[in-house]
Amino acid sequence: MKRTSHISELREIIAIEKSRGRRIALIPTMGYLHRGHLALVEQAKQRGALIVLSIFVNPLQFGPNEDYTSYPRDLEKDAHLVETAGVDVLFHPTSEEMYPLPMVTYVEVGQLDAVLCGANRPGHFRGVATVVSKLFHIVQPDLAFFGQKDYQQYLIIRRMVGDLNLPIEVCPVPIVRDFDGLALSSRNVFLTSEQRQEALILSQSLNEAEKLLRAGERSARVLETRIKEKITNESQGVIDYVEVREAQNLSEVTRIENPVLVALAVRFGSTRLIDNKVMEVNPLV
Amino acid sequence: MKRTSHISELREIIAIEKSRGRRIALIPTMGYLHRGHLALVEQAKQRGALIVLSIFVNPLQFGPNEDYTSYPRDLEKDAHLVETAGVDVLFHPTSEEMYPLPMVTYVEVGQLDAVLCGANRPGHFRGVATVVSKLFHIVQPDLAFFGQKDYQQYLIIRRMVGDLNLPIEVCPVPIVRDFDGLALSSRNVFLTSEQRQEALILSQSLNEAEKLLRAGERSARVLETRIKEKITNESQGVIDYVEVREAQNLSEVTRIENPVLVALAVRFGSTRLIDNKVMEVNPLV
Prior knowledge:
Two copies of one chain form a homodimer.
Chain A: E1 2-4, H1 7-19, E2 24-29, H2 35-46, E3 50-55, H3 75-85, E4 89-91, H4 95-98, E5 105-109, H5 117-120, H6 124-139, E6 143-147, H7 151-163, E7 169-173, H8 193-198, H9 200-214, H10 220-234, E8 238-246, E9 260-268, E10 271-279
Parallel strand pairs in A: 1-4, 2-3, 2-6, 3-4, 6-7
Antiparallel strand pairs in A: 8-9, 9-10
């Protein structure tokens, strides 16, 4: 595996591979990698492309009171993990390499960025779209892989790619969960053992909502209320949001007919966790 | 010369040329071409690249009360002109080809877009940066050529390319003027012969400001005032702005020490003309 923190060196490596006709896959991450990230690598390997994995904790997507400085980091452990997993190139730039000048240019994906996590984290998705746009221009991948735990992020990147004609296939990869159902997240490391146990309520409540839907419930509000009640009654979690929205474009839903995204964000102590599930009225058709 | 209005066909043409190791030059235009545009083609030819010239009157960069519908168009004349000039590929997409869905993604270049034409045309440079970003992703050029008559646009694109790590060299090309000094513009066609004669005051007042600077005047306000007085006293032109700003970043100037951009926008009837000149205190050093 090659490693570099320099854009120019990365571009040279990629240019050589492209000149050999090799396709390029990009996996953008913030590091502190877990099996969810490794599932992205697995998917990329199946496409036969050269795999570039980036690790960059992007200051642009953190709000002033968010956890940029405390976000977990362990570059050497990550490097060992991805080398074993079969990544070809690890790109781990510094902030100075990514932002040598004060940024004045931003990419904004309207509408999709105003709801769910966007409503609670102003500027977050602008920071995400901008840094992903930069990484796309640096790596010029044919394929890019994003985990569906950040489902809204995946939709935003997919729409950005379409609206701006980026010649990139955006590949979603399903959420990877721990043995007990907790969605894997770098931030899980901050949970106390009690909080971790309580956080199981997130996936459990999503599963219960799906059972309700399959049993015939079609009201988005009823599903949201049931999830909120369950979280509030059975844990100390403080709800940021629980929402049912159209899976294709995050627009509002009253009566469920098309595939929906059921998404939630809940705080346990100072740790904010997200989870979601895409549900269909009739998954067998 | 190849011609296409389809993104997919254009991409195929370019992919073949790239696979032969050919560099690609992009010249984005809104058509109704004049010798100013042909100077861009000349510059591109000197770089030995395959020349792609796009003609697209971009609705996104026109305000609701601006001249999008009346903007002059003559595709067949343009096609003949650029074929003779040595353009390799003419790309003339429809609005539906460029914007098949309602756009929700925008590229904004802050600070630089808030002054001069940006102050008078809200949303204009957001529309420019967004469509140029799309064209860059479609064509993936190595070089892109922009005329310095739209000096602010050139600075904005150059900054966008830097901030977003686009692997493109942005090449500015000097203003081309008519025999009498009027800066060439597709909008000149709208001037009556009296207005056209009066509009000579624009280049004349810029030249006079430069003489003042060379004679030792260092006050930006004095230069601006002299230009405004000259335009107001000697024509019916209605001034949008006359401003002296740092040529590198458009920041404010009081005492002139570094190269400055002297830029103006003036309306003659319903036709809004712009002109500018970059001036240095001591151009011989």
